[in-house]
Amino acid sequence: MSAIPPNQTLYVQNLNDKIRKPDLRISLYTLFSTYGVVLDVVALKTMKHRGQAHIAFRDVASATQAMRALDGMNIFGKDMKISYAKGKSHKIAKLDGTFRMPNVGGPVDDAAAGGAKPFVPLPGTLAAPPPAAAAAASPAAEAQAGQKRQREEESGEFFCLCLVAGYGLTLWDAIIEEDSGAEMEMEDDDD
Fold this sequence. Notes:
4-stranded antiparallel sheet, 7 helices, two-stranded antiparallel sheet
C-alpha cells in the first residue's frame, strides 16, 4: 500500500459507534478545532461507515498538526486512528472550484448522450406527460403561467389593533368598532 500524500482532510477511524451522530460531530469539531479552522465534519452512521469520520481543515498544516497530536487519543472509550484522506473533501473542492457532482450511473451528460429523455409513464399511472411539460408546450399557457397576482395594499389595521388592545378593549370590540365607523372611546377597566 502506497503512502497517502498530505491532504486538508483527515480520515478518522475506530470511533465509538454508540454515540449519536450530532454529539459525535460536535465533539470532533471541538476537539479538532483547537489545531486550526475546521471547515466540515462528516460522520455517517451507516453500516459501512460507522465508527469513521472525515474532518476537513482550511489548510494542510493544521491537518498535519491535528493528526500528529491526536492519533491514538482515547475518545469515548476507543483509541482514534487518524490518517490523511485519499481524496479531497467536497467542501474543499467547492471552495477551490474543482467540485464535480458525483455521477450515479448513466452517462456523464444527458445532453451529450442524445438529448432530453422522453417521458415514460410509470405502470398504473396515466399516460399523459406531467403538467409542467404540457404547460410548456403551448405558448398561450406559457404566457399565463408567468403572471403574478398583485399584492393588496396593506392597511394600518394591525397597528390600530395593537394600540386599541393597550386601552383595555378586546380584539373583537376593536374590529366591531372599526367596521361600524364610529370613533373609539377609551374605557376604564376599574370595575
